[in-house]
# Entry
Amino acid sequence: MRRLWLIFTQAVTISVAALFVVGTLKPAWVHGDDPAAPSTVTIVEAAMAPAPVSPANAPAGVSYAKAAKRALPAVVHIYTRQAARVPNHPLMNDPLFRNFFSTPERTGLGSGVIVDPQGFVLTNNHVIENADEIEAVLNDGRKFKARLIGRDPETDLAVLRLAMADSLPVIAFAPANSLAVGDVVLAIGNPFGIGQTVTMGIASALGRNHLGINTFENYIQTDAAINPGNSGGALVDGTGRLVGINTAIYSYASSNGTSDAYSPQGGGLGIGFAIPVSIARKVLEQIIANGSVVRGWVGIEMREITPELAKLFDLASENGLLIYSVLGDSPADKSGVKPGDVLLAVEGQEVRAPHKMLDLVASLPPGRVATFRLLRGNRKIELKIPVGRRPPPLAMR
# Structure
């Protein structure tokens, strides 16, 4: 009996051992699974693993080549020449004295944008200011003499026209207010005169003002590289449409923090400014139609009301704008506006910022009688003021 029990236990032990070996090496024989079907773990790992990359399914890299190709032909290099100035003195008839004391000829460079098939070009006023000769060179190498049609120093814009030009590439305008903060933009121009260059960034901010660059400020701020020679060039969106005219860069070296894009002081800090297409278009249309820009004017200067000013002038509220200066013999002066009045509204539109009020009055046609709501002391009054024509800046008189 003991012998039979010993044989039985040995057989059981051998069978368990065999089953363990088979279960370890060939689990499908034990469980009856399909050997072709992967386990659950394998399926998850396969789902998480990246698919093989081939030329057929590889994702395309982000490129703005189409936008650049669309806009580049319409951006021109602008070269200016200012003739030598010879003092009006009898000694200047002597060639020796003339060589020593005459002012040498000066040249400048910048960029511009062809905006019309008739050859009209938008650029910055500071690019062509005081120029005796202007030449535009297209991206395809063609050169044209350019004639000044008109300029507007208060927005730093100017309009040129190319002489004897045909088959010109023209840039497409983006709709007004189509640009948003964070949108990709490309700056195109001729930095340092090295040739046509495209840089990329985003619209960092919109509506920048209080920069001390121009009278009317409503800039697009961008981190797309803008350098000397880019002035007057195009700022375009991701499809190649014009959204602004490159104008200035932020320079730490400047006393007020700003520097024109053509200035040798420009230290790249990733802050550039462009005039939005909405303003550029209005200036362009007025200059082509009239040779200049006509704006409304009443002859007052204003400041935002701070708590200190409110206390100084004994103002009951900080709403509106404090009128601190009224130009003598101006429309406002003749209509009874006084320093110390608080401007509350113009033509029913409330005003809270000086630059907004400046834009509002400038948009009124000269000759129109506008309603100004004022606070004088504790009494609200309304004055009818005939809008005059804004005088040209001193630089144009």
